[in-house]
Amino acid sequence: MNIDRNSTIADVYADPLGRDIIEKLLLQTGISAFWIRNPLVFRLRLKYFGWFFGKDFVDSLVELMNNSPDAPPVLDGPTPVTWWKRAVFYQVYPRSFADSNDDGIGDLPGILEKLPYLEDLGIDCVWLSPIFASPNKDMGYDISDYRSIMTEMGTVDDLRRLIAACHERGMRIILDLVANHTSDEHPWFQDALANPEGEHGDYYFLRDGDAETLPNNWTSFFSGPAWRRIGDKWVLHLFTPEQLDLNWQNPAVRREVADIVKFWLAEGIDGFRLDVINYISKREGLPNGNAIVGKLLGFTGIEHYFHGPHLHEYLAELRREGFTRSGVEPGQEAVGADASPVMIGETPGAGVEVGRLLTSPQRSEMDLIFSFDHLETSGHVRWDDYAYDLNFLKRYYIDYQSRLSSDDWMSLFFENHDNPRMISKVNPDPRFRTQLGKTLATILLTMRGTPFIFQGQEIGAINQAFPDETALRDVESLNILKAEGPGAWKKVLAGSRDHARVPMRWNRSENWGFTKGTPWIKAYDDSVGYSVAAQEHNPDSVLRYYRDLIQLRHSHPALSMGSIRFIDQKVKNYFAWFREQDGERWFIEVNLSGRPLRRRNRELPLTIVVGTTKERSAVMEPYEALVCKVS
Ligand code: ISL
Ligand code: CA
């Protein structure tokens, strides 16, 4: 539909992008959707909002929506069951997983040694955070050579061994492709600076202009303006000043990225996770961002690139030109030889509808995306010190699942290397740590979608009591402290990405068996029992629970592919659903709170197969979780 200033809020809501934007604004401000989804507001015309928010605000909305494709039609006939729908993924943060040569930094041979552990856990696909050559201004998310391995991580041969070992064990392996930006040490950028009129001059956003006038008002995600001054030029960086945005409008850049993908596919990898891939298309002319949108979202300029004018076109092209393995018949699925290796986009800011546009099989763009709207509850940001209410997660999943068509699929995750640990966010009381870890595992592994486990989650990892700034390593946290001073400590401690980046706890020896050297970042959680070694032999551990549940999911397709039906949706603190396929039915029920809860649905004929308790008594324990077979 064509949206203009005279369109109503109902029209905006009917547009996929429009609906996502409205919901994002509500989420951000903590305003209930009730205020929007009611007939009075629905009839309001967009232009009236100009009175409050300014004409620019309305114009940017209109411009955005006129760029968005229509919602995809549903396929005729059954949708293919691709391997990644049934798979359980595991994200390794290589720097902190296992250090084989005791230099304090995790590496590829370290990961190779731990493959049996991942296989035992039941992992189908390992995702490695960046391992390509990098000066590490943002821990590998600043790449200086896409075809070689970071010195401290090992060699291309180490990677080959790792790929082969994964495949021998029937596991797949995907890498992280950071192609929205490169490091300033990348030869393309070096050449672009030296020869602005040359081959690489147009690979980046280099702008002339005097030293006082920034090309626009966009801000960086890591504090300050998104422009860096080099010589007599400005250059765009949405992240650190050393991560320079690539100009995807240039077909040569797009060809380079597709070539990099093909290069690693030829080495046998099974796909990529694409870093901030929805930011690759910037609005022509790089216009100023709207001040109100900037204030609401915390960053200025976002509306000009989070769903840019050519995003879908570039992604479809990358799928076609990069993520297609020739010589393999489609549908012929084998580790290391998928006709269409998996393409997973990290898409901050994408909501349900944009997610569907990006992953619908009919549109041939990506397979899965990571949307982040569930990681903080409504009205909160990562830096807030607050208790995450799991009832929010419940509403999020009920809403998300109800809006997916039978062709759609979603990713499931609570943690990654950019976020604090979920157990700590929900309830840091140590008495609940194990139980809560299992509850979260239950939701993650029995929901409809593809689960992603972040290293340490399976042993109930929690946030770190970092003593002070010297314990931190992440540029984002350090920049905030630099810009806002020591008063920002509390907020940094609440949201720092370093919570997730401390070494994996393998056993009770020094540095948790991660290294015999000095770890590049130190952990500050001394609790006993939360290591792999301690949990492996404890049948009540979080680790054993993960293992049991993954195994169950693998042996019962109803739990991965089956339909999902939520019940008792309105009952607070109670989250329950059925999964069903080919006459096989499962019932999952969870107490979302740290208090006992009267059990519902006692009359159902159920057998507990995996759970935090052995009996369906009249009262559910705090954070109780049960996975039951319906007989
Ligand atoms: O942590 C954030 C900044 O506030 C997130 O917005 C994060 O930057 C965003 O999700 C993008 O993350 C990815 O790209 C970044 C990198 O620092 C993150 O580690 C990566 O996951 C830039 O490459
Ligand atoms: Ca090492």
UniProtKB/TrEMBL annotation:
UniProt record similarity statement: Belongs to the glycosyl hydrolase 13 family.
Protein species of origin: Arachnia rubra
SMART domains: Aamy (SM00642)
InterPro entries on file: GH (IPR017853), GH13_cat_dom (IPR006047), O16G_dom_2 (IPR045857)
Short name of one Pfam family: Alpha-amylase
Protein name, UniProt field: Alpha-glucosidase
Record domain Glycosyl hydrolase family 13 catalytic: where: 91-501
